[in-house]
């Protein structure tokens, strides 16, 4: 078994080839484009590009507040974002890579519409490094700096809708050699690599900021699985793929001795004029056809136990924009009557050992499907499974497109090669991230955090924020508690993650600084209020709750009774009253005290003053 | 080493296999197996082995100029982005001679008989009057064989070339459509494919003048046709850079057909080409503080000078004195750097003084169009030059167009 990883990390701040922010909202403005396949540098058409041509889709793009003519492909790219480049060099150094003398950007042709230009700009920064793991070094083949693609919003009727907000966000891609031993090791490797990027100040740190591709082979060709969204899914995804390929191997063995083929598609739309199947009725009403074909010798292999040949075919149909592919192993389903099934089977010429597939959609599209199904069937029988697949949120994989080759790369002529000068190399020395071990040491020794606290800060991508804010707190534990407990708890209670604006309201410009974003905050933050008013931990937490749960604006917090700290005189006054009321002891003084005031106080101060008063008596 | 040659080299202590792409001043660029090019200092790399070139390693060879046949659409390529692709030796965009690959990628043109002739290989900033004459003669030859004409041209100076041909052809038997692209045709997002598609359809209408066909807006859904003499490139890089100034477009191509076409001159029965141009014409952009000496030097001994004045058509007082001195030898015409709107030299005293000094206002004619028109008139109608400059010949005056 061979496993390699390609991990993508987004950087925050500005986009890679223009000065738009990486953060933005969608706008109503939209435009449509088509992409035309073109040849690569050596004059050949890439197979993945050719495949996309057959799909012939239209693309609709929604502009966003963080997009300009560069994202619209209406202007050449601006010079590369120097911060993103420096970060990539720093990470290359940390992962023991050779940093190239020049960064040359290439155009990687991608005609699924996810880039308005029809290509992704990408350049190698570092090569040939390694990352240490408990089971030996995993070699790093390349570290590239590239632009992220558009975010897909929807796809229907041959039109794919994209948002421009994500397009152009700097993306660091770290690719390993296939040195990973098993799914557990893949997870460990991803974590080890992730640590370096996540300790960088300009790591973006949003939900979708890390995406993993898994390269996997168990002897039947390389499968590239795109877009594993969470670390924990790496394992599930590899395990799913092992199961899928093993089952296909079993199918290919069963079929080896039998004659097998997919018959021609036959139009059976006329059969369903009075059908009870609402799905078929709806499809015919919208002008689509129903067609069926015999798959000889495959009865029971389409969907039975581990056998899922039907899904292999359905993936191909789905990519062609065809709603669905039904097959005889799942019949009678979809509201088909016995009579209808009988005529489908006899029209297709189904024998006992044969399966039948039924497809709904435009006739012209279904006719293009046949050669693609033949190709897929042939690949499975020969067990040549190399292709690009996508990871699903449930840890499975789906066919995406043929594996793209080198033919889709050609130089980005609008950006001259960037010389990595000695001055640049010197300036990044202080940026080079520390290893996980060193970071843990720093957190536990310098900030005196517990092992658990330190790990949580790192795993939740709070390291750079913690380090930036720690100076504001006498006790770093309070900050780690606020970041790791108070805020997540309040977010849970509210049922919503805090927005960037809210984080800035809480921590002020220091938050923006820590995230390397432009600083704009001119009014008080909760953190500044807290320092001025000398709040204790409880009061700070009360303020956060008022702000997050009760939506009290920061400017009004200052006036709130419950946030005003009692001074010694005020405490003495309340204690005097309590003593007058009688029955007050050192044990019950705090609850009684709390009953007398809405304001904040430090319980240890109250006790101290109470004891002094008692002693004076 | 040759481009495309496979090599083995060592770099920073490690060996790699790759394909040689190019060398810079002190650098070398190699394509790795992954398709990525890397550029490194030439001194830091050691070539360990050079493989001999295999068949098929060479980048595609150029095919021959096919020339124009009869009764079809003749595409004349002159260079520019639309007929450009990546030059792998320099990494820059360079013109290509063979456009046959475009035919496979343009939709909805199978019903047309297409010919292609490469008549030049020039970036549009290098186009000049001699080239206009050459383009016009090639277009005449194509029309003589019953072909309509499409000229692929760099967008930067397309409006000058199109206007020049518009004046030079007093009568024409077929449409002549200029088109170009803002994104080179070696990129999947190129606007070239739809621009060509629209141009071919416009070239099959009964239009008897010269037009420019380019994207209507940023979307890949329609192509607008503009009158050559009213068109202007109004954006450095966007697909919809070309606009028709103060006049609606003449036609629209969308959903696979020409949707509308109006206000055009129709085809003639014969071709009249006046293929002489007077190069001794000046175009001066006036700016505040412009030295009189500079204006004098730019105007001296010119047959005519088109001034792009401020606002309604003004220059500084000092320049008026220069014009007064030179206007016995040189004709001065006024256009506006505002682009939109008419010149009106009666509103302010400066305007009246300029008229008094001999300047002739050109209403709303575009300055670039006026310059080309002057080149045509001066060479062919020297006796009626000033009179014809003020007469609408090819729709260059917007409000008198018909």
From TrEMBL, chain A:
Catalytic activity, reaction form: L-glutamyl-tRNA(Gln) + L-glutamine + ATP + H2O = L-glutaminyl-tRNA(Gln) + L-glutamate + ADP + phosphate + H(+)
Keywords per UniProt: ATP-binding, Ligase, Nucleotide-binding, Protein biosynthesis
PROSITE patterns with a match to the protein in the record: GATB
InterPro entries attached to this UniProt entry: Asn/Gln-tRNA_amidoTrfase_suB/E, Asn/Gln-tRNA_Trfase_suB/E_cat, GAD-like_sf, GatE, Gln-tRNA_amidoTrfase_suB_CS, Gln_synth/guanido_kin_cat_dom
This enzyme's EC code(s): 6.3.5.-
Gene3D superfamilies to which the protein is assigned, alphabetical: GAD-like domain
EC category: ligase
Presence of the UniProt keyword ATP-binding in the record: yes
Any single GO CC term annotated in Swiss-Prot or TrEMBL for this entry: cytoplasm
GO BP: any one term: glutaminyl-tRNAGln biosynthesis via transamidation
Domain named Aspartyl/Glutamyl-tRNA(Gln) amidotransferase subunit B/E catalytic: residues: 1-426
GO molecular function, one term: glutaminyl-tRNA synthase (glutamine-hydrolyzing) activity
Keyword check for Nucleotide-binding: yes
Complex and partners: Heterodimer of GatD and GatE.
Function of the protein: Allows the formation of correctly charged Gln-tRNA(Gln) through the transamidation of misacylated Glu-tRNA(Gln) in organisms which lack glutaminyl-tRNA synthetase. The reaction takes place in the presence of glutamine and ATP through an activated gamma-phospho-Glu-tRNA(Gln). The GatDE system is specific for glutamate and does not act on aspartate.
Family: Belongs to the GatB/GatE family. GatE subfamily.
Protein's name according to its UniProt entry: Glutamyl-tRNA(Gln) amidotransferase subunit E
Gene behind the chain: gatE
Automatic annotation (TrEMBL), chain B:
Ranges where the Asparaginase/glutaminase C-terminal domain occurs: 280-382
Protein name from the UniProt record: Glutamyl-tRNA(Gln) amidotransferase subunit D
One MF annotation (Gene Ontology) recorded for this entry: ATP binding
Catalytic activity: L-glutamyl-tRNA(Gln) + L-glutamine + ATP + H2O = L-glutaminyl-tRNA(Gln) + L-glutamate + ADP + phosphate + H(+)
PANTHER family found in the cross-reference section: 60 KDA LYSOPHOSPHOLIPASE, L-ASPARAGINASE
Keywords: ATP-binding, Ligase, Nucleotide-binding, Protein biosynthesis
The L-asparaginase N-terminal domain, residue ranges: 73-259
Keyword Nucleotide-binding among UniProt keywords: yes
Active site: 81, 155, 156, 233
Family matches, as InterPro entries: AsnA_fam (IPR006033), Asp/glu_Ase-like_sf (IPR036152), Asparaginase/glutaminase-like (IPR006034), Asparaginase_C (IPR040919), GatD (IPR011878), GatD_N_sf (IPR037222), L-asparaginase_C (IPR027473), L-asparaginase_N (IPR027474)
EC numbers: 6.3.5.-
GO BP field: amino acid metabolic process; regulation of translational fidelity; translation
Family: Belongs to the asparaginase 1 family. GatD subfamily.
Quaternary structure and partners: Heterodimer of GatD and GatE.
Entry keyword Ligase: yes
Role played: Allows the formation of correctly charged Gln-tRNA(Gln) through the transamidation of misacylated Glu-tRNA(Gln) in organisms which lack glutaminyl-tRNA synthetase. The reaction takes place in the presence of glutamine and ATP through an activated gamma-phospho-Glu-tRNA(Gln). The GatDE system is specific for glutamate and does not act on aspartate.
Domain of life from the UniProt record: Archaea
């Amino acid at each position: 078994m061979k496993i390699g990883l390609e991990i993508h990390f987004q950087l925050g701040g500005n986009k890679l080839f223009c000065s738009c922010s990486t953060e933005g909202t969608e706008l109503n403005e939209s435009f449509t484009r088509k992409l035309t396949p073109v040849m690569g540098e050596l004059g050949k058409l890439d197979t993945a590009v050719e495949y996309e041509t057959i799909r012939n889709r239209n693309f609709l793009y929604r502009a966003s507040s963080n997009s300009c003519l560069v994202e619209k492909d209406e202007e050449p790219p601006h010079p590369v974002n120097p911060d993103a480049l420096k970060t990539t060099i720093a990470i290359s150094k940390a992962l023991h890579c050779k940093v190239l003398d020049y960064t040359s950007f290439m155009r990687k042709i991608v005609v699924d519409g996810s880039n308005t230009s029809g290509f992704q700009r990408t350049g190698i920064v570092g090569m040939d490094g390694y990352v240490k793991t408990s089971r030996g070094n995993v070699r790093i083949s390349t570290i590239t700096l590239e632009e992220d693609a558009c975010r897909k919003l929807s796809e229907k009727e041959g039109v794919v809708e994209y948002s421009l907000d994500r397009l152009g966000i700097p993306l660091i891609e770290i690719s390993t050699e296939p040195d990973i031993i098993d799914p557990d090791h893949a997870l460990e490797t991803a974590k080890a690599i992730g640590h370096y990027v996540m300790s960088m100040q300009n790591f973006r740190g949003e939900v979708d900021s890390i995406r993993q591709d898994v390269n996997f082979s168990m002897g039947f060709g390389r499968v590239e699985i795109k877009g594993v969204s969470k670390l924990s899914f790496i394992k599930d995804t590899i395990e799913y793929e092992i199961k899928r390929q093993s089952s296909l191997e079993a199918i290919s063995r069963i079929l080896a001795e039998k004659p097998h083929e997919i018959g021609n598609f036959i139009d059976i739309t006329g059969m369903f004029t009075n059908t009870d199947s609402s799905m078929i009725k709806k499809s015919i009403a919208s002008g689509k056809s129903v067609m069926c074909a015999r798959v000889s010798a495959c009865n029971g292999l389409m969907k039975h136990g581990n056998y899922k040949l039907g899904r292999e075919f359905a993936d191909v149909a789905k990519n062609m924009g065809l709603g669905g592919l039904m097959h005889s192993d799942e019949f009678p389903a979809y509201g088909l009557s016995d009579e209808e099934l009988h005529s489908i089977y006899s029209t297709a010429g189904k024998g006992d050992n044969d399966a039948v597939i039924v497809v709904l959609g435009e006739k012209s599209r279904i006719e293009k499907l046949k050669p693609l199904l033949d190709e897929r069937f042939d690949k499975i029988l020969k067990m040549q499974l190399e292709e690009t697949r996508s990871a699903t949120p449930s840890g499975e994989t789906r066919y995406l497109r043929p594996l793209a080759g080198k033919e889709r790369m050609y130089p980005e002529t609008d950006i001259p090669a960037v010389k990595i000068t000695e001055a640049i190399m010197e300036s990044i020395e202080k940026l080079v991230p520390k290893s996980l071990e060193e970071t843990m040491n720093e957190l536990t020794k310098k900030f005196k955090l517990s092992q658990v606290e330190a790990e949580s800060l790192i795993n939740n991508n709070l390291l750079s924020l913690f380090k930036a804010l720690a100076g504001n707190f006498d006790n770093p534990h309070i900050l780690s508690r606020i970041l790791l407990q108070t805020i997540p708890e309040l977010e849970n209670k509210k049922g919503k993650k805090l927005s960037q604006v809210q984080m800035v309201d809480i921590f002020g410009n220091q938050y923006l600084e820590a995230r390397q974003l432009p600083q704009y905050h001119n009014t008080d933050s909760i953190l500044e209020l807290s320092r001025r008013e000398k709040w204790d931990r409880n009061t700070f937490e009360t303020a956060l709750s008022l702000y997050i749960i009760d939506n009290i604006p920061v400017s009004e917090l200052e006036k709130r009774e419950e946030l005003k700290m009692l001074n010694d005189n005020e405490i003495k006054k309340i204690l005097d009253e309590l003593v007058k009321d009688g029955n007050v002891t050192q044990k019950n003084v705090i609850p009684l005290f709390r009953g007398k005031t809405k304001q904040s106080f430090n319980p240890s101060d109250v006790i101290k003053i109470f004891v002094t008063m008692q002693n004076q008596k | 080493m040759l481009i495309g040659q496979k090599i083995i080299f060592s770099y920073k202590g490690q060996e790699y296999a790759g394909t040689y792409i190019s060398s810079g001043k002190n650098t070398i660029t190699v394509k790795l197996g992954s398709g990525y090019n890397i550029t490194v200092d030439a001194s830091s790399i050691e070539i360990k082995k050079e493989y001999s070139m295999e068949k098929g390693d060479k980048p595609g060879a150029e095919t021959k100029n096919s020339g124009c046949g009869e009764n079809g659409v003749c595409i004349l390529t002159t260079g520019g982005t639309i007929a450009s692709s990546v030059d792998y030796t320099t990494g820059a965009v360079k013109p290509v001679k063979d456009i046959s690959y475009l035919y496979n990628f343009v939709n909805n043109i199978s019903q047309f008989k297409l010919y292609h002739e490469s008549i030049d290989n020039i970036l549009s900033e290098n186009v000049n009057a001699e080239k206009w004459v050459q383009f016009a003669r090639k277009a005449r030859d194509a029309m003589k064989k019953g072909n309509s004409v499409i000229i692929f041209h760099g967008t930067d100076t397309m409006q000058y070339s199109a206007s020049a041909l518009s004046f030079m052809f007093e009568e024409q038997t077929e449409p002549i459509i200029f088109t170009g692209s803002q994104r080179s045709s070696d990129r999947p997002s190129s606007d070239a494919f739809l621009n060509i598609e629209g141009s071919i359809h416009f070239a099959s209408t009964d239009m008897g003048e010269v037009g420019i066909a380019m994207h209507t807006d940023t979307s890949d859904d329609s192509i607008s046709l503009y009158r050559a003499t009213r068109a202007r490139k109004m954006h450095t890089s966007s697909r919809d850079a070309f606009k028709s100034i103060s006049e609606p477009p003449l036609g629209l191509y969308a959903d696979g057909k020409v949707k509308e076409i109006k206000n055009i001159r129709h085809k003639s029965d014969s071709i009249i080409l006046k293929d002489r141009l007077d190069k001794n014409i000046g175009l001066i952009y006036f700016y505040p503080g412009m030295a009189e000496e500079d204006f004098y030097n730019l105007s001296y001994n010119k047959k005519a000078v088109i001034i792009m004045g401020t606002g309604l058509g003004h220059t500084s007082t000092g320049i008026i004195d220069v014009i007064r001195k030179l206007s016995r030898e040189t004709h001065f015409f006024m256009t506006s750097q505002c682009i939109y709107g008419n010149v009106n030299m009666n509103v302010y005293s400066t305007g009246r003084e300029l008229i008094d000094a001999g300047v002739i206002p050109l209403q709303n004619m575009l300055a670039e169009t006026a310059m080309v028109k002057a080149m045509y008139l001066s060479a062919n109608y020297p006796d009626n030059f000033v009179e014809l400059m003020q007469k609408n010949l090819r729709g260059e005056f917007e409000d008198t167009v018909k």
